[in-house]
Amino acid sequence: MKIFNLFLASSIFLTACKSQSHNNSIAVDQHTQSNAQAVSCKHLQLAIQVDFEQQQLRGCATWEIENKDADELHLDTDQLSIDSVLVDAAKVSFHKDTTVPHLGERLRIPIQKNSKQVAIYYKTGAHPRALQWLTAQQTLSKTKPFLYTQSESIYARSWIPCPDGPGIRFTYDATVQVPLGFMALMSAENPQSLAKDGQYQFHMPIAIPAYLMALAVGDIAFKAIDARTGVYAEPTMIAKAANEFSEVGKMVSQAEKLYGPYRWGRYDMLVLPPGFPIGGMENPKLTFCTPTIIAGDKSLVNLIAHELAHNWSGNLVTNATWNDFWLNEGFTVYFERRLTESLTDKSYADMLWELGYQDLEATLEDLKGKPEDTKLKLNLAGRDPDDGLNDIAYEKGALFLRAIELKVGRTAMDTFLNQYFNHFAFKTITTEQFLDYLNEHLLNQYPDVVKDLAIEAWVYGAGVPKNEPRADQDRFKQVNAVRTSFLETNAIDTKATQSWTTHEYLHFLRLMPKPLAVSKMQKLDDLFHFTQTGNAEIADLWFIMSVAANYMPTPYTTSNEAMRSFLSSVGRRKFIVPLYKELMAHPYSVPVAKEWYKAFRANYHPLAQESLDALIGK
Ligand code: BES
Ligand code: ZN
Question: Best exposed site among 21, 72, 164, 277 by fewest CB in 10 Å?
Answer without folding.
Answer: 21
